[in-house]
Amino acid sequence: MTDIATAQRLAEAVAAALYQRDHAARGMGITVLEIRPGFARMAMTVRPDMLNAHDICHGGYTFALADTTFAYACNNRNHVTVAAGCDIVYPAAAHLGDGLTAVAEEKLLRGRSGIYDITVTRQTGEVVALMRGQSRRIEGKVIPEL
Amino acid sequence: MTDIATAQRLAEAVAAALYQRDHAARGMGITVLEIRPGFARMAMTVRPDMLNAHDICHGGYTFALADTTFAYACNNRNHVTVAAGCDIVYPAAAHLGDGLTAVAEEKLLRGRSGIYDITVTRQTGEVVALMRGQSRRIEGKVIPEL
Amino acid sequence: MTDIATAQRLAEAVAAALYQRDHAARGMGITVLEIRPGFARMAMTVRPDMLNAHDICHGGYTFALADTTFAYACNNRNHVTVAAGCDIVYPAAAHLGDGLTAVAEEKLLRGRSGIYDITVTRQTGEVVALMRGQSRRIEGKVIPEL
Amino acid sequence: MTDIATAQRLAEAVAAALYQRDHAARGMGITVLEIRPGFARMAMTVRPDMLNAHDICHGGYTFALADTTFAYACNNRNHVTVAAGCDIVYPAAAHLGDGLTAVAEEKLLRGRSGIYDITVTRQTGEVVALMRGQSRRIEGKVIPEL
Prior knowledge:
The structure is a homotetramer.
Chain A: H1 3-21, H2 23-27, E1 31-36, E2 39-45, H3 59-75, E3 79-89, E4 99-110, E5 113-121, E6 127-141
Antiparallel strand pairs in A: 1-2, 2-4, 3-6, 4-5, 5-6
């Protein structure tokens, strides 16, 4: 198998293992759409229990979708990796029933530190959140090596 | 009644109204501990459905507690106010059963824009998240004027 | 002239006008390499007076190059626009004599607010800074309309 | 000598050594007003060569004052420490001749990582910048141990 095919197979296996253990992501109805090394695309639908007092999607849930997608992108080379910090802006609000999609892309990986850009859009294509995440690799593997 | 007492009574009434409408905060078991003008202190216990694949509290839930506390601080003068952006760092992980407390303090308020600092600690006093939020006041009141 | 050609001519005229008035940028030896609507590419060489006590380029000067490039990108549609906030990370240090290039790209423009990504690289291609800037359009034109 | 007096003497000696080597800070006319362990207060006057095309203090120079003050706070326990990332907001503009003061305070120190809050004010007391910096301790001492 080529290196690229191996990396892809590993990325998918890691994502599957993460998802199986990820009570939080499954509880929010987050689903995995696409995995590539250093990349993830995931989806979530805004439910009634995700609305805040202004009757829009609570920033915490939008953040959670972005943060989860970030985690699946930065862990999928099978090195346990955590978020060191994130910043997020909300150009538009998400509403009940909106189908949100988040894409996480590796912007930079240097030693144990990485920078990822995460974009969350509604079904209309409108951007509802832009996150930039700093990752830090710690000890350990997510799954036993293939 | 003094101005200070009026502002305090308004802040508490706004927080109570927000909480009643806030499906997301109540769904996460977030409770209001203390409200003052421009200030809020709130709590949340880490539940099994809040754990991620690394078996620690999902960053989205820690963020959601911080973000909720920020919202109750920046809205409680009764001007509808939204988060324009946030950045968060996670100095330590939160675990199952941890009792988290978030404190949101107004650092600066200038025209329609504000800056709030939010600190989330575990029951041990250890800091698990530091957030800085930028708020932006929009049109409207949270509740009818007292 | 097409709309695209007009926008390009305007962007270049605005950048030229900004540069002529920009004591700070010229004092740091910053030069303009490329201007397109919502985009700028600029350069700076690290001088001895830009070194800090660790004998590397002072973060303030790296930031200043990134911030200047951001300004030329977000103002070049001829609406006066200021930075509301920025975050920057430094994946690597810049050293004496390094030729730095900054590229600012518009990530999002919505109403009066925008998000720009700025990347600063050394002559080797290594990334020395990643900035994300939030812009806010205020009243006024940079130059009289063409 | 007490531990406190020793830490204070060390912090002052480190700051003096940093300043002597710091071409960038001295070139900008930055001065040291107060040093304590994990704390620094520094000043800078806005000069004509610091003005940008909008005729206000270039964000890079305001940033540089904040960043320098941050560096003197996070290095003064004599462990070489670098900025891993910063975010800054500008609540107000600084103008020609303004006397700016920056205060950097340690918010959190955990292992090799720290969080510092830096506030820059004008002579009127108005806040012109709020920065939050993430520090990372690397190998080495700033000066030989006292």
